[in-house]
Amino acid sequence: MKQEKSCGGVIFREQNGLRKYLVLHSIQGHWTLCKGHVEGDETEHDTALREIREETGLSVDFVDGFRETITYAPRPGVTKNVVFFLARLSGGTLACQPEEVEAIRFLPLGRALAALTHPSDRDTLQKAHSFLESRRPMPTPLYDSLRALADTRPLRLDMPGHHGLPLPGGLSWPSELDFTENGATGNLFGDEADAIQAAEALWAASFGFDQCLFLTSGSTQGIHAGLALLAREGGSVALDRGSHRAVYHALALLGLTPRFLPRPWLAQEGVTGPISPEMVADVLSAHPEIKTICITSPTYYGVLSDVPAIAAVCHARGARLMVDAAHGAHLPFLGYTGYQAADVVVMSAHKTLPAPGQSALLFANGFPLFELQRWGSVYGTSSPSYVLMAALDGVRHYMETEGTARYQSTVRLVHELRRRRPALTARAPLELDPARLVLTSPDGFALANALRSQGIYPEMADWGHVVCILTCADGAAQFDRLEKALDRSGLSGPCAPVPAPPEPPPMVLTPRQALFAPRKRLPLGGAAEQISACQIAPYPPGVPVIAPGELIQKKHLAYLVQIGYNRDGSTAIDVVR
Predict the structure, then answer these.
(1) What is the DSSP string of 472-528?
(2) How far apart are CA 419 and CA 439, in angstroms?
């Protein structure tokens, strides 16, 4: 057996508290770490330094104590050992070796792991990162400051009323970290630099944004603040009709009039497809006064729109893009960079990351932090939870270390399950969140009930789908339990045919007029020719069949009956009196 040997380095740099790792794209077409063959009587360090200099143009200093060897068979009859050292960038000018390297990138850990082609490289990078993390305090400035303060056993004569003691009844809650603004804990909406702003800056740097604001009232707070930041009061916005009800409430509170962006109906999947750049261009051309666009990506079903292309259309016309990415907080850790093209992005950490309920994030490009604070304070509580903010600090650190690898494992398990079971799968023009599992069934409601009867609780069910949110908290054991339950149910299969929704009804009142108008409650079946004071948004299609201020017509009521909405006739809705 022939033996070969190469040496290289896991190269990193640190700026403003954020560490990034070098990955390179070889002319063979794969993303890899920097390495090359030992020549002559070179030492391992000599080879690594030479290869780094030749392939990247950079100089480095080795970090003592790290040496990782991987072994593989590059071709029959050959065994190759590759030795990696840990190397801190010290100088040089970045330059690709033309005969070997096509591109070089410095990326945060999550995106670097997602970029690397070979599992052995990913494993080496993860070990190098863990080695570095073991040599420094945990980079969680807010959590650390609260923990340090709690350890002094202060006499707390302020809020909250538990004063750091355990809650009655044995409820599990980190009371010792549950502070208020006391001069030592920072101020979420304050001007001075503090541990909260340091923690927010780490999130912004990790996701590639100028600013980040912690939210303790969920994405609803971020949606209201984001639209106020971009659209201000009055005027029109181009709006994804499938927006969350918080967006419709923001329209009413800000006095905005929507021009809806239609989504195509995908009959094969029984869901609406992505917002296209062409749709946005058409609306902006027809309504040049619109300068704010708001879309949802991903949707509940995991459907992703092309955010960079849509952002380019908006910016070319002097408009700005806001993305409701409430279900997408995990995607940047998996290597997705599309959100960086938007002006404002709202994410619910608690939906897809191991974070507590109501914890969320508001990101922005091109705005100072005080503007985010201004509107965040208008729509959020004046007593933000320090426990939630400390959790946000901790979950970022977790995801930048072991959490990303766990999430990548979940993505692989979802991919495999999609191949074995009837489920939504990606196809042009349908791009999906790789971690969202949407099972299909001839009767989605029955399948969901069958799963619940076995102690498995999916996120949502509709006529022909069951939506499961799978995260880094789920591994092989959870997937195995789900599959066995699906086998016992006998209800997996193609999606039940779902008709496309009709054209939206005419808008009679603005969202603001509809929200504040006197109202009455009627059975849905008896509401024809009334003006709706609420959303009627069954899944599917996942978009409002009727929106606030629109005229309820018989064809829309007939469609709701056709898709099985209000089966027992008990649904009542609010209409304008």
Answers:
(1) TT--HHHHHHHHHHHHHH----SPPP-PPPPPPPPB-S-HHHHHHS-EEEEEGGG-T
(2) 11
- Nearest CA to 319 among 210, 223, 226, 238? 238
- Contacts of residue 283, defined as CB under 8 A and 6 or more positions apart, other chains included, come to 238, 259, 261, 290
Average of per-residue pLDDT across 111-133: 91
**Beta strand 360-364 pairing with 211-215:** antiparallel
Residue 4: DSSP 8-state: E
Query: What distance in Å separates the CA atoms of residue 295 and residue 299, rounded to the nearest whole number?
Result: 10
Average pLDDT over residues 320-333: 97
Beta pairing class for 257-261 and 236-240: parallel
Helices (H), 31-190: 44-56, 109-115, 119-134, 141-151
Using a pLDDT cut of 70, give the percent of the chain over it.
98
- Cβ atoms of 109 and 401 within 8 Å: the answer is yes
Q: How far apart are CA 297 and CA 411, in angstroms?
A: 18
Q: Are 473 and 516 in contact (CB under 8 A)?
A: no
Q: Are strands 211-215 and 101-107 parallel, antiparallel or unpaired?
A: unpaired
State the average pLDDT for the chain. Answer: 92
pLDDT at position 17, please?
62
**Predicted confidence (pLDDT) at residue 117 exceeds the cutoff of 80:** yes
- Domains in the chain (CATH in brackets) are 2-134 (3.90.79.10), 190-400 (3.40.640.10), 404-489 (3.90.1150.10), 511-576 (3.90.100.10)
Longest dimension (CA), the chain: 90
Residue 72's φ and ψ, nearest 5 degrees, are: -155, 170
Query: How many C-beta atoms lie closer than 10 Å to residue 92's C-beta?
Result: 13
Structure tokens of 257?
């009039």
Residue 483 pLDDT level (bands cut at 50, 70, 90): very high
